[in-house]
Amino acid sequence: MKTQAILLASRPQGTPTPEQFQFETRETPALTTGQVLLKTRYVSVDPYMRGRMSAAKSYVAPFEVGQPIAGGVVAEVIESQSDSLPVGSTVVGNLAWQEFNVADAQTLNSVPVDKAPASYFLGLLGMPGLTAYFGLLDICQPKAGETVLVSGAAGAVGLIVGQLAKIKGCRVVGTAGTDEKVSHLKALGFDEAINYKTTPDIAKALAAAAPNGVDCYFDNVGGAITDAVYDLLNKHARIALCGQISTYNATETPTGPRPEGKLLKTSTKLQGFIVSDYLSRWPEGIAKLTEWYAAGQLKGEETVTEGFDHIPAAFLGLFKGDNTGKAVVKVA
Amino acid sequence: MKTQAILLASRPQGTPTPEQFQFETRETPALTTGQVLLKTRYVSVDPYMRGRMSAAKSYVAPFEVGQPIAGGVVAEVIESQSDSLPVGSTVVGNLAWQEFNVADAQTLNSVPVDKAPASYFLGLLGMPGLTAYFGLLDICQPKAGETVLVSGAAGAVGLIVGQLAKIKGCRVVGTAGTDEKVSHLKALGFDEAINYKTTPDIAKALAAAAPNGVDCYFDNVGGAITDAVYDLLNKHARIALCGQISTYNATETPTGPRPEGKLLKTSTKLQGFIVSDYLSRWPEGIAKLTEWYAAGQLKGEETVTEGFDHIPAAFLGLFKGDNTGKAVVKVA
């Protein structure tokens, strides 16, 4: 069977551009025992993929130039040589940006599409949900009445962090880059939300939004917002360092005020993490998130782009702040 | 009784100078019930006191201008209205820089001078020892075979950290500021020691000294050495942020390369702390340190300045790197 594939054409210097992506028609291999043929339904685009486009050593292996880009995909089994995944099953897996993929059934997880929309298994009930869950609940361990600050709050992970913090009884403050996102955060239950792009003095605005200081900081963006948060930390604050999207496209080492003195004075714990650090606890996390979703305490939020051809644009949009909640591409 | 006292004459801008100190003769108050009159034997000078000389909010209250500076003191009871502390007892407490002090017995701890030299209760078996103990063993939790890097390794805390790391079976690398200190570190069992002042490329030297990367970093100094260590962190590294002496005298916010991206990629935990965070566990720490000292596994190391009049000079010497091990002043 023929399939469209999206290859990494070249490695970006700085912000990626459409030139980094190359469409190609490929032939899918014949199925062998234990394999399934998959029709892509939803493709996930995520900031961490920027790191994989570089050759530099990071926490996941780089993409190869001339090979398909890969990531989280929800797909339907349309041909099966696996007893565990019959035709018609919906699965999630790490798959190539192709309309069709052949994969070993054992590398895929079946998803219960009767419980939530299929795309949610790339967001609220997938990697971003688990990232929010472990980063906030395991690293920050917020207590009722504490103030939780989330940067990139309208992003896939940030929106879930804020909702989880509200479930835990915290005051929740978020930063985002448009007034629309700010309204959305407030509608979702955030106590305060700040448009960092239009606020002239972000440090002052954050201080006003967190009058009792910051106990937990879930950082998705880094840079100037994070600098300002460091000045608001309470004694024994906890920081979950999840992402630094403001610096991912930097071509030189970003510099700024040194945070160590502030972390020292407040006995703050700062923990970098990636969701795979918690692999053994994923079933626990998925079960809890699904429970809160079913109870109506957690909402899934998405920005859906339509069409396989628009995957690169949806990915590039992450760095322009185009998405609210999880950015996914509906392919079929 | 009359006593000499050393007052804070003015708050320093940048590096403190002798002008910040003022000698004055004061009268000690008469004893009331439960109090003792103390003759100062040893005075501790410590980098954290620089913070207390500023008015800025920090983890301990600022010293008052025109009032005596205070800190760790070992003293002998020469007059007593307390049943628990008879004349002749040796105690440690937080006391003014005076030749004589009056204090409530309940604010003092008796020290067993039969077990170790009296001054050691300001160093190995006092606050610096406990700082090393909790920072290394609780925050970093080094495992046998791991690499532990210590900056300011020849200082009061650093020397103990290195020895504790050797007890735990680690490879230990230290940085210090003179060749004499480097030799001393090696004699104490450090696997590698680097003179950061004479090494042209500190990053390269640290990389060579830690060929398997850094698992634990105990940071006393901050600045350029710390920047270089961030590039050597192994996955799941742990950093105990104990001091930042390289920046304590800075008059503007120190800047440098942002560490967050590196901490994120390696899932590193960085924890700022002060020894009082562990107050409830001090008895455990003192007991363990005393046990290792008695067994000959830990050595106390001091730089002793003689004479009450030289307390300011001994304090100022901390910022010039004059001391190896704990800096104390022998008063009587």
TrEMBL record, chains A, B:
UniProt entry keywords in alphabetical sequence: Oxidoreductase
Residues in Enoyl reductase (ER) domain copies: 14-329
Record lineage: Bacteria, Pseudomonadati, Bacteroidota, Cytophagia, Cytophagales
Gene3D superfamilies in the cross-refs: Medium-chain alcohol dehydrogenases, catalytic domain (3.90.180.10), NAD(P)-binding Rossmann-like Domain (3.40.50.720)
Superkingdom of the source species: Bacteria
Protein name, per record: NADP-dependent oxidoreductase
Pfam families: ADH_N_2, ADH_zinc_N
Molecular functions (GO terms): oxidoreductase activity, acting on the CH-CH group of donors, NAD or NADP as acceptor
InterPro entries with a match to the protein in the record: ADH-like_C, ADH_N_2, ER, GroES-like_sf, MDR_fam, NAD(P)-bd_dom_sf
PANTHER family: PROSTAGLANDIN REDUCTASE, PROSTAGLANDIN REDUCTASE 1
